[in-house]
Amino acid sequence: MSERPEAARAARATLTQRTVIGDPATVDLRGKVDGAWSDFRTALEAALPAMPVGSRLTVTLDPTATGTGEAVYDVVLRVLPQSVVHADAVGNAGLPEEYRLDRVAVGDLVALGWSPPGVVEETADRFGLRVPMDEAPGVASVVTRTLRDVYGAPHPAFLTYTVSGDDVLPALGSARPVAAGTVLAAHTPSSAVAAYDIPLEEQVRTVVASLSKTDPDALNPDDDGEFSVRAGSAMVFVKINDNPRLVDVYSPILTEVEPDERLYERLSQLTQRMPIGRLYCTESTVWASVPVFGRDFQPTHLLLALQVMTRLADELDDRLQGDFGGKRFFGEGDKGVSRAERTGMYL
C-alpha cells in the first residue's frame, strides 16, 4: 500500500470529523483553517476572469513543506480564447509509485468533475476540465477541494503558485506566490517575510518575535538553542535541528503521566482532528509536535505551526490533565491521578 493514498484518505476522514464533531479543543482552529480555504477559493474565483488569454496559473502543494519528496501535486489553469478556462491536474503517470493515488482518490477526482487523463484535449496523462469562463466559481471550488481533500494540503499556506504570460501575480489568500528570487507572503506580518539569503536561525527568530510582539534582537535562545513561547498554562518550544534540517515546534503537554491504552487511543483521536502535527506519549510525557522543513524554509509555515501549537497546547493540557492526571508546565498544584481514580473516565 502506498503512503500517499493513505494520507489522502486520512485528509478526507479529517475533513468529515471537522465538519460533524464539535470538539472544544479544535473548534476554533477548525474555523481558522476552513476560513483560510474559503478565502483561497474566493480569491481564485476572482482571479480567473482577470487573467488575460494565454496566461497560465500553476498551483502546487509545496513538497519541501509536506515531505512528499519528488512527488509534485499540482493543478494548472489556463485562459483560452473565447473566454474558456482549461484546467488539468496531476495523475498517477506524473507521480512516483509510492505516492500515486488509489482508486478512492481517483474516484473522488472524477466525482469533483475532472475528466480522466487524456479525455479533455491537451491533457495527455493529466485529469482535465474545460468550461466557459462564466463557470469560474465552479472551477475555483473544484480546484480548492482537489488540493485539500484529494491531494491532502492541510492549509493554503502549504501551497505555492506561479503565473506565466502575465507580469502580475494575483493574491490567492494565504497561498504563497513565487516570483524569481523572491518570497512573497502577504498574510504574514511584514517583519516575518524573509529573503532566501537570510540564515535560517535569523528567519526563525524573526517569526517567533513577530508572534511574541517583541523585537527580534531582544529574543535570545536558551542554553539548548531553543526559543520558547508561553501559551497560558503550556510552554511551546522552537528548535532548529540539523539532521534532518527542520524546525521543530513542540510542547510537553503533560509530564508524570501513567500512560495506558485509553490515553493512547485519545491521543490518536485528537491527532486525526489536527490539520497538521501529532500528539504522542513517551517516557511518561505527552508531547505535541509540528515539524517545519528547514530546507527552502518558508516563514509562513512556521507562523502557522506556532499558531496551531500555542492554541492547541493551552487547551489540551487542561483537558487531558483533568482526565488522565499528570502535570502541566505551569500547573501549580497539579498531581498525578492513579489508574483507580481514572476508572470510568470517558475518552
UniProtKB/TrEMBL annotation:
Residues 36-159 form the TY-Chap N-terminal domain. Residues 200-331 form the TY-Chap central domain. InterPro entries: TY-Chap_M (IPR054343), TY-Chap_N (IPR054344). It comes from the Bacteria. It holds the Pfam family TY-Chap3. This is YbjN domain-containing protein.
